[in-house]
Amino acid sequence: MAGEVKLVLCGVLCCLLSIGLYHHVNNINNNKCDMTYMFQRPHYIEIDLPPEVKDNFPQYGVYAYGEGEYSIHLYKGQFNGIPVLFIPGNGGSHKQVRSLASVAYRKSLEDDGPDFHFNFFTVDINGELGALYGPVLQRQTAFVTIAIRRILQLYDEGGVGNSGSGGVGNSGNDGNGDGNSGNGDGNSGNESSGNGNSGNDGSGDGNSGNDGSDNGNSGNESSDNGNSGSESNGNGNSGNKSNRNGNTVNGTRPVVKPDSVILIGHSMGGMVGRAVYTHRDNNGTITPTMVPLIITQATPHTRPVIVLDQQLNDFYDKVNAYWIMERDYDLKDVVLVTVGGGRNDIQVPTTRANTPVADISTTTADVPYCWLTADHQAIVWCRQLVLATVRALFDVIDTNTNKLSTNRTRILDVFNYHLVK
Predict the structure, then answer these.
(1) In terms of DSSP bridges, do strands 335-340 and 360-363 run parallel, antiparallel, or are they unpaired?
(2) How does it sit in the membrane (predicted)?
């Protein structure tokens, strides 16, 4: 009799567990994010790395994002924008940078826009599954620290409006259409040629409704002001904007040489971004002055989503312990902004996307004029969030120096305004 009771209880518990799992997976809101589109052909310009780096990290790479005519200046090594580095997450692709980068580029072309623009960089981490294996995250952190230093070196070699070609190699990936069917930034992180199959970050002709259509169909939304097509900005030139000083955005305007890089990390890329301060190599460590601002999207900050090896746990313990210990000391001036996807992100719940060491923690549902939930992949290309993030990036730049503002209070006020209030 006792055995039968135990069997019944086990059956009831299994049923309840199944119902809870079904509810967790299926009881989500429809994805109401608008897609982000490119209006000109995207280019991913590979950045040359030292031979020893290529030997140690043969599967990794650093790329600069260019679009249309502006890509010509990047191929020549003319980097004169404010550097931003995008770090993809678990199984992610470096091409996921295109949504933020394209909208930021379009905003810089507006007639009443600022006299500065951004250079968006990204790292190719070979689609590695960093959420499942600790040593992968350690290796990615080591490479990202190298990438940060290399990006800053570009402005010494051929950047700041010069016509030199230092630091830029040939890109085998320029102009891929990235036509993913329905989900923008391929879940699998795979890159395939062809006509853009679902889930793959593929090159091709970019079907309608996909993030990164090659031909930029009229009516698709990409710029901050909702204009369609390749804006001529009054002078008939597509892709160029005359500034108040008569120079163009695309590579001739002198700017102050940057001394810092803004990091934006998706998923596990956010943890890698936070970990750069803890990694030491022959060149020392990345200092808070080199990376003063980190924005994370759908990043599990508090603990791993799943722990399959001790090294993954150790990685989290090391990073979180360092941040807790140094938050009021070495990291006191670093601004950390975390954004969660909300209810639709069944991979990273909101409780894990927040962290006590963050200055601002929000979700897509709380972002003004976004007010919706985004799944784990959609948060990268969700147009409502992309627009808010890009506006915040432009507003935290000190127009007197064309650098990230050193006023921490101002930065917090800006992100609170665009992402919270």
Answers:
(1) parallel
(2) Multi-pass membrane protein
